[in-house]
């Protein structure tokens, strides 16, 4: 319980709020998109090479969608 209170104090500080706000602009929306919109809760293939291929495919789709939504697609 004391760790939770310490973390709340740390996040509620001026520096903590600034640092926490940067999280939304970095990678967390990407993982949220993968998990909720693309339904990637777990990998469906077995083996490191196949899993990496599946991950790269999801990343490729994500980047193509970003380009398409920002009117960079031709």
Overall shape: flat
What is the tally of helical segments?
4
Strand tally: 0
Helix fraction, binned, reads over 70%
Q: Give the helix/strand class.
A: mainly alpha
**Low-confidence runs:** none
Straight-line N-to-C gap: 54 Å
Cα gyration radius (Å): 18 Å
- Major sheet: none
Order of helices and strands: HHHH
Strand content: under 5%
Task: Compute the average pLDDT.
Answer: 82
Describe the fold and architecture.
It comes from Undibacterium fentianense. This is Transposase. Residues 3-68 form the Transposase DDE domain. The protein is mainly alpha-helical and 74 residues long. The protein has helices spanning 2-12, 14-23, 28-37, 48-69. The longest helix has 22 residues, at 48-69. The relative contact order is 0.07.
Tag the structure with descriptive keywords.
74 residues, mainly alpha, 72% helix, 0% strand, Tnp_DDE_dom, Transposase
Task: Map the helices and strands.
Blueprint: H1 2-12, H2 14-23, H3 28-37, H4 48-69
């Amino acid at each position: 319980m004391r760790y939770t209170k310490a973390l709340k104090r740390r996040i509620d500080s001026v520096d903590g709020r600034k640092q926490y706000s940067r999280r939304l602009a970095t990678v967390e929306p990407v993982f949220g998109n993968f998990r909720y919109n693309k339904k990637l809760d777990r990998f469906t293939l077995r083996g490191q090479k196949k899993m990496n291929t599946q991950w790269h495919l999801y990343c490729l789709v994500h980047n193509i969608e970003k380009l398409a939504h920002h009117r960079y697609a031709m």
